[in-house]
Amino acid sequence: QFVRRPLIAGNWKMNMDHMQAIALVQKLAWTLTDAEHDYERVQVSVFPPSTDLRGVQTLVVGDKLSLDYGAQDLSDQDSGAYTGDISGAFLQKLGCSQVLIGHSERREIHGETDELLNRKLAAALRYELAPVLCVGEGLQVREAGQHVEHTLAQLEAALQGFSAEQLTDLVVAYEPVWAIGTGKVAGPEDAQEMAQAIRAKLAELYSQDFADTIRILYGGSVKSGNVASILQGADVDGALVGGASLDAEEFAKIAQFE
Ligand code: PEP
After folding, report:
1. Strands (E), 138-221
2. Which residues pair with 131 in a beta bridge?
3. Domain carrying residue 40
4. CB 76, CB 123: distance < 8 Å
5. 103 is catalytic
6. Is 135 a pocket residue for ligand 1 (Cβ < 6 Å)?
7. At residue 64, does pLDDT exceed 80?
8. Candidates 105, 112, 137, 175; catalytic one
9. Domain count of the fold of the chain
10. Residue 147, domain CATH
11. Would 20 be classed as within a structural domain?
């Protein structure tokens, strides 16, 4: 019943050393195979720490209909004197198909600005990495009733200067910061309200046809028990899952939502 192919994405954050990552991705792939997961119907991807990507690459068969994987961040630069940063070129060589951009933890802890995220988006596109752009408001903004304006401003700033043709692989993840890792889930109506507003903004910036093709995810304490109700929103096309993606069986259940 989905117009767009749903995406269930797992953000491992700074968890899982390379041995644990191999075990987790192997168990996840097996669990999904056992459950006869139809990757054509629901795309599944994982975002391990960068140091795990090589291990994940060796385990994930690179055919289009299997698990996808990507990085949690990338540099806005291609190469050079940027100690500690990771180039999109390296991620592309490691077989990544996606990259998270502007996760709230990057915005908060690392002070990533909308301008920097706009450049990171450009870097992702240079290396054919589908950008999963994270947007969303904190508790104060939500309580002030400004969550829609705030989130749409983040979206517009990140997309500044790009054409619809450049953004065909864009995924937008709406993650209310107050619902991340807190056990507080935005209600299905809240997720739908924002997803609809994001799609309307994309239609305004580009066109309705373009907006209708872009996948919009919800993220914030998604579990197997609440995923189905969240995905009932007509504009919600999947989930970005943090904590629950560290348990292969639980994450597989989320991907198998009915
Ligand atoms: C996230 O960090 O992207 C996230 C949604 O985390 P959690 O599912 O743990 O709330």
Report:
1. 171-174, 215-219
2. 99
3. 7-181+214-234
4. yes
5. yes
6. no
7. no
8. 175
9. 1
10. 3.20.20.70
11. yes
- Contact between 174 and 217 under an 8 Å Cβ cutoff? The reply is yes
Contact 133, 116 (CB under 8 A): no
Task: Dump pLDDT digits (tens) for 12-50.
Answer: 999 999 999 999 999 999 999 999 999 999 999 999 999
Question: Sorting pLDDT into bands at 50, 70 and 90, what band is 186?
Answer: confident
Residue pLDDT, tens place only, 119-164: 999 999 999 999 999 999 999 999 999 999 999 999 999 999 999 9
Q: For helices 147-159 and 188-205, give the axis angle rounded to 10 degrees.
A: 40
Asked if the structure places residue 196 within a domain, the reply is: no
pLDDT given at position 115 = 98
Burial class, 16, CB count within 10 angstroms (exposed 0-12 / middle 13-18 / buried 19+): buried
What atom of ligand 1 comes closest to residue 182's alpha carbon? 10
Q: Which atom of ligand 1 is nearest to the CA of 134?
A: 3
Going from the Cα of 32 to the center of ligand 1, the distance in angstroms, rounded, reads 21
Does the CB atom of residue 10 touch ligand 1 within 6 A?
A: no
The residue ranking higher by pLDDT, 132 or 187, is 132
Name the phi and psi angles at 9, rounded to 5: -120, 135
pLDDT for 61 equals 66
Q: Residue 68's closest CA among 104, 105, 28, 34?
A: 28
Ligand 1 in contact with 245 (CB < 6 A)? Answer: no
Among the listed residues 37, 103, 105, 137, the single catalytic one is 103
- With respect to residue 190, please indicate whether it lies within any of the assigned structural domains: no
Please indicate, yes or no, if residue 193 is contained in any of the structural domains: no
